[in-house]
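Usage

Read records sequentially. Each one opens with the input sequence:
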Amino acid sequence: MSIHINKTEVEQWDYIELTLYGPEHGNPFIDVKIEANFRNEDKEYLIKGFYDGSGIYKIRFMPEKTGFWSYTTVSNVDELNGLNGEFVCIEASSANHGPVRVHNKFHFHYADNTPYFPFGTTCYAWVHQGKEMEEKTLNTLKQTPFNKIRMCVFPKRYIYNENEPELYPFEGSLEGGWDFTRFNTEFFRHFEKRILDLMSIGIEADIILFHPYDKGHWGFDRMDAQTDDRYLKYVISRFAAFRNVWWSLANEFDFMKEKDISDWDRFLDIIANNDPYGHLCSIHNGYEFYTHWKQGITHVSIQNGSAVADFGRAGLMREVYNKPIIYDEVCYEGDIERRWGNISAEEMVHRFWQGIIAGTYVTHGESYLHPQDIIWWAKGGVLHGQSPQRIAFLKKIIEEGPKDGINPIDKWQNLKLAGKAGEYFLYYFGKEQVKEWKFELPVKSELKEGTRLKLEIIDTWNMTITPVDEVFEAVKKDMYTMIDKEGKMVKLPDKPYIALRISVID
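and closes with the structure output:
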């Protein structure tokens, strides 16, 4: 029995793929176990493989350390057992930063310590729309600031998205029923191609594993526990070796009334026990919050538009969970009649700024009416709104700032201020129209007396940055407040959505 490896030299955080040929009889998805031990000088990984149809078995592995690796297959089928090989892992190329990890408690970075700030979008069913539409979506994404996309494994059936997909995840048919013991390998090959397409343009795939928007039409939302578990393990074995994968247990888990908390807890355990790389993992709510404190939940994915509608709310979740917070659904820029789908572009941008000032993150969505129901939030295609370019403007500002992320400076008394104490600050006025601002920062800004600072006025909507001519010098006013030694004022445009960038002069 021979074994084929797709490459003998692989970049760190890229993947190798072993291909083996074995039995087709019976049900290989159930009957055949295939794994491989991957070893380097100091660690060993047992990686589960999967059946890919037509007698083909595959095992994928993402090496996280450079150097020499060897492998040996393990199987309950003699012809697939005990096969050996080796490869070399080399340093990653400049565009390969590895998987995203939690960093500095509330933020993220890539495995190579490159900063990563999530500026995501939502496109639930884009991979189920056919080649032409999917390619259009990818081309659109290339022109946007978005570096994460929320997307469902299962097709979605909901308002404005009631078309049948070209492929289904199981063998069988809608009319004749599904064989839940046999996966449609064409479906999964297509899905993973889209994951890799996203990787090639620098976008993280936030993969939603379950969702309620089936309503029994296909029955993928009402599978029994054994089928659920088998599906999860299959998905992990196929996708986990891709560095841009995030796991989202569900979209609006609490709307799936056929499942209870014990199911979601079990799914979390399955991911923890079967994903050897520790990809980011969360779960998304409707009305009820999951117990995000649980081990295995790396960050908090929340639906709550009100949290980022005004000052002081978004930061509370940081205090509650002590983990990174992503407000993954804050309503959508659009004009549909549903209350969740008709906020203005100005409001969407404002909510992004509110999230950032609170030391959290926000995800975009768009739902403008279309004569063919081609709405970005579900099907992708092209964007029509005005918020993406403003979000790109904000993203650039954040990427130019502290590499460890933006945090509240005085979270109890000054909710408009965030940054890095002693170095850098963003002051966001929100919807308030301010004519002038007297230089005043909290003592918690950790500025030393005599520190010189420069100010820039940011128009978050018109996307302009205007330097203030004066230099400011910090002195202590009282036990709570730092002011400019000359009491200088800053004239502002007297309109909403203005911010200040305040930086220490070296």
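Summary fields computed downstream for this record:
- Residues 3-90 form a domain with the Immunoglobulin-like fold (CATH 2.60.40.10).
- The longest helix spans residues 185-200.
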